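Deliverable D2.4 — example input (structure tokens):
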């Protein structure tokens, strides 16, 4: 490997696609990517990457910096596209396939991709958008029909032709990911090849990653968690990656049974689904070296249950803007203390500050700031948001946490989620952690609601476990002696399900709207009764 300094400088003739090219030369027959019966060695993956980049280079619109959108489930084609764009100096825009057409249209108008690649399941969806977006070139991964070109034919038609590619460096932008928008409208975070490289180095240290590892990718790769925590770092190391196109417990347990998987990554909702499956109690997890959990604060009760079952669980903390690995635990640390999200990653700095950007002492809540070569370049076409996100090179995550004397970080919530009730700061994550241990609840979240007397009151929004009663009074009793009185929920609202985004994060803005609407209904009923 070519040595690189902490500034992230690289030789001018290298880029991220060299990961695949070098492994193809050194270990051509080693398995790189497996997906639903299809398998690509490193040599075959490199052949596809070069063919795709050469074909795209023929397009006069595909200059460095041009965007290519991808709409589909996890697939080898998306990974081919990432490395082909790295070779060209272009930018990959993976689209969240769970979004509605108006949401996709807004992103496509903002990013203006030159090419849009879609899987067969989404071609009709894309066609419904064409009158509302700048028209991209359309390429489908299935059988071609107008207005679609064939992805397979595009690569197959290359033959021995070689189109000169521009000299692309690690400084070039590569990945444009629109943030999940749990507290507002999504913004496009732009990540350079350098950021992805340093994130891969952080991942290598975190996982002790080698070419002998086998990663099972469960989470959707339109998110940096699914793409960057294990998948791309595994290919950097020359390991094998098996992709689940979509997560199901059946597919997960089948892969563990049939393949020698050593690493995988989950989110709390996925882990919860696995724990409800009968195979959870009988599956042999001994081949797993470590299992990551991230995206959102995981309840302590969930982590304890998984570690008791023998899962070598670690927590990872970060954001789309940090690529995302900013901090993490080891399985040993998680076993000792399931509440912490760990210490700063190898090539990353973390500090906690108050409202004046002054560092706070240990055990004092503050905003989490991150600095490192893995941090994003800025928000796409949004200079104001980019400037607001940084202070002297430090990225403001918007998360609130504290650090103990050993530098372990504890996330207690989002700064926008913090509730001020009677002059006291209330952090929802601390209350959610307590309520998650209450046996009658399947899931719960906490938000604030404006109140004339207290300023805000704490409201718990809960989903009852099947067959268990909906009893708000018992929930309130459960809090006694476990959290401070000012942290106690003053209202409990039961719902059938919490609104979540694709990575399992609760969308707090939607929860607050639900609470506000229910409060209006209650006020209206009170007025009628008087």
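Example output (designed residues):
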């Amino acid at each position: 490997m070519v040595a690189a300094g902490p500034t992230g400088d690289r030789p001018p003739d290298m880029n991220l696609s060299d990961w695949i090219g070098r492994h193809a030369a050194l270990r051509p027959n080693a398995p790189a990517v497996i997906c639903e019966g299809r398998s690509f060695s490193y040599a075959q993956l490199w052949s596809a990457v070069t063919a795709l980049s050469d074909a795209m280079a023929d397009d006069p619109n595909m200059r460095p910096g041009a965007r290519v959108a991808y709409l589909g489930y996890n697939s080898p084609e998306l990974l081919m596209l990432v490395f082909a764009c790295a070779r060209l100096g272009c930018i990959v825009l993976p689209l969240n396939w769970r979004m509605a057409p108006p949401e996709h249209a807004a992103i496509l108008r903002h990013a203006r991709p030159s090419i849009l690649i879609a899987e067969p399941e989404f071609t009709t969806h894309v066609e419904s958008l064409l009158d509302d977006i700048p028209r991209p070139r359309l390429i489908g991964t299935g059988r071609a029909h107008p207005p679609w070109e064939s992805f397979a034919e595009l690569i197959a038609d290359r033959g021995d032709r070689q189109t000169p590619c521009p000299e692309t460096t690690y400084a070039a932008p590569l990945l444009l990911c629109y943030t999940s928008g749990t507290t507002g409208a999504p913004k496009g975070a732009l990540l350079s090849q350098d950021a992805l490289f340093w994130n891969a180095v952080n991942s290598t240290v975190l996982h002790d990653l080698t070419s002998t590892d086998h990663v099972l990718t469960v989470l959707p790769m339109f998110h940096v968690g699914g793409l960057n925590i294990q998948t791309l770092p595994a290919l950097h190391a020359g390991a094998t990656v098996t992709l689940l196109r979509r997560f199901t417990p059946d597919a997960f347990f089948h892969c563990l049974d049939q393949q020698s998987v050593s690493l995988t990554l989950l989110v709390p909702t996925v882990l919860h689904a696995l724990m409800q499956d009968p195979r959870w109690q009988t599956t042999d997890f001994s081949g797993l070296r470590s299992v990551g959990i991230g995206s959102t604060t995981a309840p302590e009760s969930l982590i304890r249950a998984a570690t008791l079952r023998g899962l070598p669980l670690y927590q990872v903390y970060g954001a789309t803007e940090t690529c995302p690995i900013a901090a993490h635990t080891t399985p040993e640390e998680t076993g000792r203390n399931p509440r912490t999200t760990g210490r700063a990653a190898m090539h990353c700095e973390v500090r906690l500050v108050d409202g004046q950007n002054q560092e706070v002492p240990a055990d004092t809540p503050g905003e989490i700031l991150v600095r490192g070569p893995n941090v994003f370049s800025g928000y796409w076409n949004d200079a104001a948001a980019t400037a607001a996100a940084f202070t002297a090179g430090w990225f403001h995550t918007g998360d609130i946490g504290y650090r103990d004397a050993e530098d372990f970080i504890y996330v207690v919530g989002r700064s926008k989620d913090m509730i001020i009730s009677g002059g006291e700061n209330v952090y929802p994550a601390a209350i959610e952690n307590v309520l998650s241990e209450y046996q009658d609840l399947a899931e719960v979240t906490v938000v604030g609601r404006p109140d004339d007397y207290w300023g805000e009151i704490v409201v718990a929004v809960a989903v009852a476990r099947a067959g268990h009663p909906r009893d708000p009074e018992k929930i309130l009793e459960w809090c006694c002696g476990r959290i401070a009185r000012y942290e106690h929920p003053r209202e409990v609202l039961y719902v059938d399900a919490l609104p979540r985004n694709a990575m399992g994060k609760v969308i707090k803005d939607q929860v607050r709207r639900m609470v506000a609407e229910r409060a209006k209904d209650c006020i209206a009923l009170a007025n009628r009764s008087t």
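The first strand starts at residue 31 and ends at 35.
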